[in-house]
Amino acid sequence: MNLNNQNEHSANFPHLKKFLEVHAGIVLKDHQQYHVERKVGPLLEEFKCTSLHALLGVAGRNPIAMKKLIALFTINETSFFRDIKVFNYLKKHLFPSLIEQREQYKSLSILSAASSAGQEAYSLGMSLYDTFPSIHDWNISITGVDIDLNMVEKANKGWYTQLEVQRGLPTRSLFKHFTRENRGYVVKPHLKKWIHFRQGNLFKPDVANRKYSLICLRNVLIYFSDEDQAKLLRSMRGRLHNGGILLLGASEIGRQIPTDCFERKQEGNIVWYQAIN
After folding, report:
1. List of domains in the chain
2. 112 has which bridge partners?
3. pLDDT of residue 190
4. Buried b vs exposed e over 128-151: b needs ≥16 C-beta within 10 Å?
5. What is the spatial distance between Cα 91 and Cα 89, in angstroms, rounded to a whole number?
6. Strands, DSSP E only, in the chain?
7. Predicted TM-score (pTM) above 0.90
8. pLDDT tens digits, residue range 137-146?
9. Amino acid 74: pLDDT
10. What is the DSSP letter of 27?
């Protein structure tokens, strides 16, 4: 490790922290400064910068550099049907309730927030398709939003490696909803037509003012400060239909949820939050 580079990165780490918090809501921990040199090295070379300070300047002026820098510090770890008991509860209890609410409209919209490579969104789609054939002719829209453009592009392709499909995807679902392609598997059209992904910052207003019946914000809040968590939760309430449902990750259940926005619901070890009218 180059000692001069290490010292320079350490000196500019507070500026990097501020940059990521302002532009992406990401709160870096102090111990993460020791990984900065490894992470930003390729970007320094790509944008011909000799220091982290220079790279931050470029990222402030160049949207592509900004997106790439933010992507270095986002977490893209995910799998199909992550926390299977949540999906089982959705199929047995929450989906039937939401479908009843939207019966007159014949439409159902779901947001997978911080959607990474798309496994959660496709898992939601498979759950709906397999369990509720009566809604196959509905206007179903499952939207994945992620700040990392590389992940958005991968998710929209709907192609996964053998290793990726082995992480949580039942064999029956693999054969039913995927086709073998180029040493991997690609989502079939009957499922793909329901699901799309776009690049976006969850902290910024949705200019299209989309409304959802269900928002999955699982394992996202843990990366933000308490203040930003509150902002994000209020923003999510604004995107839900009245009576809509917010799902958080298991590690986020005990966090402070705005009681003027959501009512906490629980059955057994499953917790969800219903939007207050």
Report:
1. 3-71 (no CATH), 84-275 (3.40.50.150)
2. 144, 216
3. 98
4. bbebbeebeebebbbbbbbbbeeb
5. 5
6. 107-113, 139-146, 159-161, 178-181, 184-187, 195-199, 212-217, 240-248, 262-267, 270-275
7. no
8. 999 999 999 9
9. 67
10. -
